[in-house]
Amino acid sequence: MHFGKNMSKIEPKSVLICPECGHKELETMPTEACQWFYDCKGCGVLLKPKQGDCCVYCSYGSVPCPPIQEGKNCGA
Ligand SMILES: [Zn+2]
After folding, report:
1. pTM of this structure
2. Are strands 24-28 and 38-39 parallel, antiparallel or unpaired?
3. Which of 15, 43, 48, 50 could disulfide-pair with 59, CB 3.0 to 4.6 Å?
4. pLDDT digits (tens, 9 = 90+) for 6-18
5. How far is the CA of 70 from the centre of ligand 1 (A)?
6. Separation of 22 CA from ligand 1 center, angstroms?
C-alpha cells in the first residue's frame, strides 16, 4: 500500500468538457487555488462547480484539481 500523502505525481492538466455544448478544452489547472468559474471556449457559457465539488475541474474536467489529487480538501 503506497497510497499516502506523498503521491508526487500531480497531473496539472485537465480536459474540461462543457456540459452545454460538449466542447473540450485542455487547460492547465492552478495548483494553489481552485477555479470556480470557467468560460466555455465553445459556447461561452459560464460554468460553475456542481454542488459538492470544489471547482470546475472536479465537476467537468478529465482530471480533478491538484488539491484533490493530493488527497486534500481544497478550500475548506
Ligand atoms: Zn460550451
Report:
1. 0.80
2. unpaired
3. 50
4. 556 889 999 999 9
5. 29
6. 6
